[in-house]
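>> Question from a student workshop board

For tomorrow's exercise we were told to take the sequence and the ligand below, predict the bound structure, and bring the output to class. My setup keeps failing. Could a helper post the expected result so I can at least see what it should look like? The ligand is 1,3-dihydroxyacetonephosphate.
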Amino acid sequence: MRKKMIAGNWKMNKVVSDVPEFFRAFSSACGLAKDRSISAKVDILFAVPSVLLDACRTTASGMGIHVAAQNIHQETSGAFTGEVSLPMLSDIGVNATLIGHSERRQFFGETNQSVALKTASAQKAGFLAIVCFGETLEQRNAGQTEAVIKDQLDPVFDAISGLNNIVLAYEPVWAIGTGVSATSAQAQSAHEYIRNLTRSRFGGSADSLRILYGGSANPKNIAELFTKADIDGALIGGASLKPDEISSMVVKALEAK
Ligand code: 13P
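>> Workshop helper replied:
Here is what the output should look like for this input. Compare the format with yours to find the bug.
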């Protein structure tokens, strides 16, 4: 059975002084403060802005919570003003990252090719890479959802050396930050397609691959999403900023069959 993952994406929110109180409230609300074994049953991860990484890692790692970057550069060093490298992150004890979030693609020119390069570099460096992708509303309405997903994933599959340390995050663009989640049936249909696509490239190891759903996931819809066979967790934006909301999603993940 695949271990569920609840991953928060803080995007460009919060400051260092918010960090201790956030994790105090979160760990007490989800039960982690009293029972550390929770982190063995569900992977809990927060992807936070670079300047918050050190504070989050210091505060959260003792609780078994993983801390991730939101983006990385594929090169290890060099003249890339404004970028953060994998060795810089390892140096502060961070070994996980999001890659290819739709906001990176939309606002910062990330392409399927750059996502593939970054994923390969992250995997080589031993990082957990959470690779994000998903279709726009126009693409869905035009019946292109599966073709778009394939176009997004094929270059990644060409670049990686297997599925070790890879997590996929299906985030339909139309569901991100809109309050309109994909239905559990829509999400399952995409996840099943993604798993089959992965299986056709990597064989049986696709059965251990975790595929997260992201896009207006919240405490109200998460239990229903978790009834579906190929939904192994959630990547959560807005609700991850509120300790009571994301903690209740951890509890729902623990309760899921
Ligand atoms: P929301 O949960 O706010 O829709 O954001 C989803 C997301 O982009 C997570 O990466």
